[in-house]
Structure formats: C-alpha cells, structure tokens
Specification:
globular, mainly beta
Length: 334
C-alpha cells in the first residue's frame, strides 16, 4: 500500500476524536523528511499531483473523493528539479524557478528545528497518459512546493488523564511507499499501555493474485475509535508500479470479529461509500473457509469489482500487544 494511505488516514483520524484519555505518557519520534509536490491540471474530475518524499520515488497521484490512482517510478527529485521516466505512460522533467523560501513554526509538543518550505513555479515538460487514457496530464508550467523538515520528538498523553496532546495533533511524515501499517502502529500505540486484555487493533485482509499483480482488500479497526477500509489493485508495468483503489475512514463497527478460539471463526464486513454491499468470512473447526457476499468497490479506470470469492486468501487478527499489532498490520505487506 502506498504512502497516500498513511497520510490521508492520519489526517482523517483527528476528525474521529483522540486516543483514550487513560493512555500512559509516550513519545513519537518523527524523522526528518523531504517532500516536493507539483499540482497538475485535472483529468476526468480527478485532482492530479506529482512529487516525491524521498528524492528517489516519483509518484503521480490522481484522486477524487475516496478513489485514488497512483503511478510510481524511480527518478530524481530535489529542491531544484523533478525528473522521471514513466515508460509507456509518459515523462516529467521540471525545474524550480525563483521559489520563495519560508520557515515554518514547530508545535510545543513537537519541538525541533522549523521546517523550510519553498513555494513557486516549476517549468519544463509533463506528459502522462494512464491505461485506457486514465488519467491524462500535460503541462509546461505548474505550481509546486518543496518542504524540508527536521527530526522532532513529540510527547503526548499524561498520567492525569488529559487528552490535549494526541497523535492527531501532529503532521505525519510516512515513507512514500511504506504500508499503512506505520499509521496503524502509531494510532494503536496509546492503547498498548493499558489493560492487557483490551483489544488495541483488529483486522481482516483478503488478497488474490491476478495475471498482472495483486488485488487486496483490508479493514483495520481500533475499537471505539475508527476503522480504515482499503481496496487496492496493484501491478507493475515495465518499471512503473501502479496502484488503484479506494480508502475510507469509517466507524469501527464496519468490522465484527468473533472471539479467537471460540467455535467457528467468523467475521462480517460492511463499509460506507464508495464501497457497497457486505461480506462474511467463516472458518470452521475443520479448517474449511468461505469468503462470500455482495461487497464491491469501483476501481479507477475499471468500474466496480467484487471483493469476495474463493480466489481470495483471507486472514484475520486481534492484537493486544505491540508485537501482535505489528504482526496484524503486516498482513497488508505483499
């Protein structure tokens, strides 16, 4: 799963509230980072951007609501330029012209050297045409922002039960191609210091291989907090990694799991738009499994696709410790 999952989900998490007030004090180390982002003309109602978060991985993203398409390739990016060859899909070659340099502030709970932002115009050539013409992008002059941030140590939570210092108050700096696991580990961290019998995270991941890559559906729920629902069609075309799918932040009630070890293992899944329908997973005492239902989602450029069927390999998890949380979120690894 690409980094847009982590970035969008952590921003949306703040809208659902904060971690439980009884959480023990803890800290989150946010490493320094680099990001450059250029906005391209819209295509088919999708907002399009191209950029990098690590100087090497260049990613073109098209998004409309919960629907997202991403095309990434190894290229070159720094505060002065952005270059990438997307093979049969196109290319980008842009240069910054006289950007304005600005220094940002730092939050009290995340002290550190202020980030440096450079805002201005990039000029050159961008031409991109995805599968079946989706998305299309062409430009010679675009608005762009380059940001260089420095390491910070954020401290939140307190023994008195206050909830003002929470993970939702900070901006994430995820690796551009790291899985959504990093986000989930951060969000569940505050719950792991409490009652050892309390479930901090539960999830269901369903995958199946296709002729060109992999299709994946995942839902992770932090009880009484939120759930992240993801569908992604992944493939590699030449040197370009393509990811198209949908992501929504939802109520934790979208996933219901039976207690581990209690009779047949069961799970039911529902999800808000753009998802539709529902799904049910059963693993009986003999090990026989079924994953059935009407759960579907639109994939950009492909239309609606089914998320259930015997071709999917399904795994569920319930985590109470940090080690279990890592194992649970790692289910979305390739």
């Amino acid at each position: 799963m690409a980094g847009w999952i982590a970035a969008l989900a952590l921003v949306a998490a703040a809208q659902f509230g904060t971690a439980p007030a009884q959480a023990k004090p803890h800290q989150l180390v946010i490493p320094g980072s680099f990001e450059i982002l250029a906005q391209l003309p819209k295509s088919h109602g999708y907002s399009i951007s191209i950029g990098s978060e690590d100087h090497r991985h260049i990613e073109l993203k098209a998004s409309k609501g919960a629907l997202i398409a991403s095309y990434s390739v190894i290229g070159r990016a720094n505060r002065n330029r952005l270059d990438a060859d997307f093979g049969r899909f196109g290319h980008v070659s842009l240069r910054f012209h006289a950007p304005q340099r600005k220094r940002g502030g730092s939050l009290q709970i995340c002290p550190g050297k202020p980030a440096v932002r450079e805002v201005g115009t990039m000029r050159g050539s961008v031409h991109f045409s995805g599968p079946n013409g989706f998305p299309n992008a062409s430009a010679t002059r675009v608005h762009a922002v380059a940001t260089h941030s420095f390491p910070q140590v954020c401290k939140f939570g307190n023994a008195g039960g206050g909830s003002s210092n929470t993970p939702g108050a900070t901006e994430p700096h995820p690796h551009p191609h790291g899985p959504g696991a990093r986000l989930l580990q951060r969000l569940t961290q505050a719950r792991l210091g409490g009652d050892d019998q309390e479930v901090a995270l539960e999830g269901l991941v369903a995958k199946h291989r296709t002729n060109t890559g992999q299709f994946e559906f995942a839902v992770f729920s932090i009880p009484e907090f939120l759930a992240i629902v993801i569908a992604s069609a992944e493939e590699t075309v030449g040197r370009v990694h393509v990811s198209r799918g949908a992501l929504v932040i939802a109520s934790p009630r979208v996933l219901k799991l039976s207690a581990p070890g209690a009779g047949p293992q069961k799970a039911t899944v529902t999800a808000p738009k753009p998802f539709s329908g529902s799904a049910k997973y059963i693993k009986d005492l003999g090990g026989e499994e079924s994953w059935d239902g009407s759960l579907r989602v639109p994939i950009p450029g492909e239309g609606k696709v089914s998320l259930t069927g015997p071709e999917f390999d399904v795994k569920t998890c319930q985590a109470r410790t940090k080690k279990e949380t890592e194992a649970c979120t790692n289910l979305i690894q390739p």
